[in-house]
Design brief:
It is built from 6 helices and 7 strands, in the order βαααβββαβαββα. With 177 residues, it is of the alpha+beta class. The protein has a single domain, classed as Gcn5-related N-acetyltransferase (GNAT) (Aminopeptidase). Helix 1 packs across helix 3. The mean pLDDT is 92.
């Protein structure tokens, strides 16, 4: 099984739309109003061109996708850290470690190594039966709740670089060298 993780391009729009709609079927059944659950081609293309959307391909098939929205590119979010959203694993690849592999790559290679982000956050519906537990097992901790389109949404954060996080959150003085 050959896995490849790469930034998505406009040419990946159809594959990501198909993957996302299939993966978000349980979200639609729960009547949770996430934009990815009812995405169309234009919405996926906008997501790819405005954010960093990653695609994990297994043996040439679109197996999983996730998007990182950066705070400097999204004035609607007041959190200073990157935001993970539109995370989806194609049903054919569920419970094979694909999602964990993609999230680990994003957290470790992209956010820690390349971006030097001290933390990352994401959000999910509080009433979703398994997502909060999955993220908590990955080290995410709830820090805020809001109501969005009638659903209680929980925001979870993962600290990626504790010393830098403490400095930026003004818990430690900045020491210049």
């Amino acid at each position: 099984m050959a896995d490849k993780i790469r930034l998505a391009t406009a040419e990946d729009t159809e594959a990501i739309l198909d993957l996302t709609l299939k993966a978000y079927q349980p979200i639609r059944e729960l009547k949770i109003k996430f934009s990815a659950a009812t995405a169309d081609k234009q919405l996926v293309l906008n997501n790819i061109t405005r954010n960093s959307t990653y695609l994990l391909e297994r043996d040439g098939r679109a197996a999983a996708t996730v998007t990182i929205r950066y705070p400097w590119a999204d004035r609607d979010h007041d959190n200073p850290y990157p935001f993970i959203w539109w995370f989806a694993v194609h049903p054919d690849f569920k419970e094979k470690g694909i999602g964990s592999k993609l999230l680990a790559y994003i957290e470790e290679q992209v956010l820690c190594e390349q971006v030097k982000a001290p933390a990352v956050y994401l959000a999910t519906a509080k009433r979703h039966p398994w997502l909060i537990g999955i993220y908590e097992r990955r080290g995410y901790q709830a820090f805020e709740e809001k109501v969005y389109e009638g659903d209680d949404i929980v925001f979870l954060r993962k600290i990626l670089n504790e010393p830098l996080y403490r400095i930026l959150e003004k818990r430690e003085p900045i020491i210049s060298t």
